[in-house]
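Q: Structure tokens for this one, please.
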Amino acid sequence: MLDRRRVCLSLAALGLAHGGARGASRVRLGFVSGLDRAAAASFVEAMLGDLRARGYAEPATLGFVPRFANDDLSRIPALVQDLERQPVDLIATHAAATTLVVKGPHTVPVVYEFSADPSSAGIASDLAHPLYNATGISLMLAELNAKRLELLQQISPQVRRLAVLANALHPGQHLERDVSQAKASELGIRTSMHLTRNEAELDAALATIRADRPDALLVFSDAFVVEHRRVILDFALSEHLAVVSGWSVMADDGALCTYGPRLVESYRRVGYFVDRIARGAKPSDLPIEQPTVFELVINRTTARRLGLTIPAAVLARADRIVD
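A: Here is the predicted structure, written as tokens:
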């Protein structure tokens, strides 16, 4: 009995020497992305960084098995099947691949980061009740659009007509639309809605906006919008339109301001779910989370181009200023 105890203690010490997760056995984590390796790098680095902070270390207690669809979402089911043949203990995924992974055939638990509303996408009954043996993070907080419109009015009080641009295929965009229209009405702003599903419809929407020019543009954030942000922002600047949106990458590339989740924090939070499930928790017992860390980013260069002066009170609240 004593010898066995010594062996167990030696093995435990070996695990700690290799940076092993506290009390966890080795986990093989599959990862499926609809993007290519470079485009998914920020997500992967944040997720793995969180797992390392929780005590996991490759290869001692974490085996990471990534698969990339390289922008061809039709490959997702085959990538999931490949991972399960490895086999892996669970699969992490994100962005546009989420519904394909979660709703497709899989036998291992899935953890996701999803920009849309899980209920609208059919992968949860509600945030407290995830479905399909999967759970994770939803970036959508429709009510933040009210804050974005308040910021717009503080920066540009003359705005009376607002065009709203959104991806029609983004589950939950109707929730964002309802919040935006209600807040705009409260602020005395008339809105026009422009839904797009592809590049052709985006071009048509921008042509319609140009023909009946508003005072500003509210853009709902999702992968389609981010992918086509250069077209949207170049158009807006050429038309002398202020753009407000949710994710900081939009402000970095020319939007007047963004207010929304600090994405890297949400990416890191995926590690929490991986750790919980690796330790035996069921996805159905882990409610879907929403972001708790937000950031306001102001592009002062764009403000100058539009002839706008950012109020000192707004600048004081900014987490970051792009000059």
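A few notes: The chain has 14 helices and 14 strands. The mean pLDDT is 93.
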